[in-house]
Amino acid sequence: MAAAVRAGCAHRGFISVTRRGSHSSTALKPQYDVIVIGAGHNGLIASAYLQKGGLKTAVLERRHVLGGAAVSEEIIPGFHFSRASYLLSLLRPHIYQDLELKKHGLKVYMRDPYSFTPMLEDGVRGRPPRSLTLGADLAKTQQEIGKFSEKDAKVYPDFLSYLERLACAIHPLLDAPPIDIPGLTQGSLRKKISALRSLKPLVKSGLKLGKNIPDFYELVTAPVMKVLNRWFESEPLRATLATDSVIGANTSPNNPGSGYVLLHHVMGELEKEKGAWGYVEGGMGGVSESIARSARSLGADLFTNRDVKQVLIGQDGSAKGIVLTDGTEVHSKVVLSNATPYITFKQLTPQDALPEAFITAVDQIDYTSPVTKINVAVDKLPNFLAAPNSADGKPGPHHQCSIHLNCESMEVLEEAYREGQQGYPSSRPMIEMTIPSVLDPTLAPPGCHVVSLFIQFTPYLLEGRRAWTDEDRERFADTVFDWVEHYAPGFKKAIVGKDILTPPDLERVFGLTGGNIFHGSMSLDQLYLARPLPSVADYRSPVKGLYLCGSGSHPGGGVMGAAGWNSALKVLADFKRL
């Protein structure tokens, strides 16, 4: 029977989501007002707003599909994966509304419950092992937490309110460039008065925080362990919450700054529900495609399979367009780069156009990544010991969650981090498992599922600073699958196919320098006024007419779109002066 299902899974005539609307029928023109390098979601958003502002804009994407890391790809026949990013929450609501993304096809599946942490333990008196499930129903969530600590159950609502207050207070900072320090400190009185407007978002945030400013300062600077220990006593709850403080980041709950990473992951909203994360129909490519349709409807030209080799620099030292790898030149008055700062300034920009001190500073940007993403096709639903499948085989509430494996205690997370820092992929890795096909039937054949495994901690280079080999990848994937098997026996036999993306693979496929999903570490020295460097925090580069618009700039990573929006506004303001 399994073999028959596998055959069905592998050969059903499903249409690949990656191809829908990815190609433009418009010919590439020799001249534009603006060229955007890279069709990640920020580049697409920037193109939409620039076109809306009256500037003829083209987006040039190296790969065959639009979306950067927010893409859907049919890697295994019949199975459609959110190949890199896999959940939606952080996309700024005003962008969602301005670009009419729902009208342009964006559909989201809300998850409730949203978090499931099974334990590895022997059940008592024949019962299943315990687990912790968190969801929107506060009474049920408190009941779940009460299995481990009545005290924690009681204070949990206060903790949620505490996080929401802090997260909401910094929203004004997300939707505007950082403070204009040069404008405030240099130039004429008129320029200084104009630059005072850049203080408005900071003042708004300060007023919203009010008496909570000390709490905010502590959370963004302290190890999250310190904060969680003050609130809670139960290990499963602390460790589950701590996963959001390290996910995607090369840090541990014991490291200063991990509290900010937690805040970054709870500052979003979905369908007006604060802090919620959901699945996009058709995979994360559905987000990018809806933005692309909106941009096209406004008149932007979007192209795939156009690999930019270099930014063209005019005799006056300003950006004049780009040259493709096939030698084609396309001229423009402005160039936006959605690539990482490293690729933008070390590979795409002629080095003699940049100050030597700036190039040195670019070399110091931290791109360390701890992440491996494994996409798995299975021919049956995982069956967890802590929450056995029903007789009819239908998904349970826990299957729609972010499923946290090897997250029973802070010490397990800390040990996984320590191994990664020594050049060894964690022997007991932190795993965030999602099964979006339980809510979205477009992703897999009937009875089959797509499984996303987001894993930490894996180094970019292995012990002895050697590169990953195929054998290393397979060995680590086997380690991950073995751990999933501990929680859900039978998982390994259900695997139909897999796609393993270690940090070097994420770099190679998606252009993520160092494999870093945020286009650069979200550490305290690379945020706000210092993202990615103090000299380019306002999206302008040292080359006139060349701007950053990707996640490497403020306010950072995640499918948020704020960097694209902010950079587009900066270009529109500057364009009036050109």
TrEMBL record:
Residues 43-386 form the Amine oxidase domain. The keyword Flavoprotein applies. Keywords: FAD, Flavoprotein. It comes from the Eukaryota. GO terms for cellular component: mitochondrial matrix. InterPro entries: Amino_oxidase (IPR002937), FAD/NAD-bd_sf (IPR036188). It is found in: Mitochondrion matrix. The keyword Disulfide bond does not apply. One of its GO terms (molecular function) is oxidoreductase activity. Interacts with COX5B; this interaction may contribute to localize PYROXD2 to the inner face of the inner mitochondrial membrane. Probable oxidoreductase that may play a role as regulator of mitochondrial function. Belongs to the carotenoid/retinoid oxidoreductase family. This is Pyridine nucleotide-disulfide oxidoreductase domain-containing protein 2. It comes from Sinocyclocheilus anshuiensis.
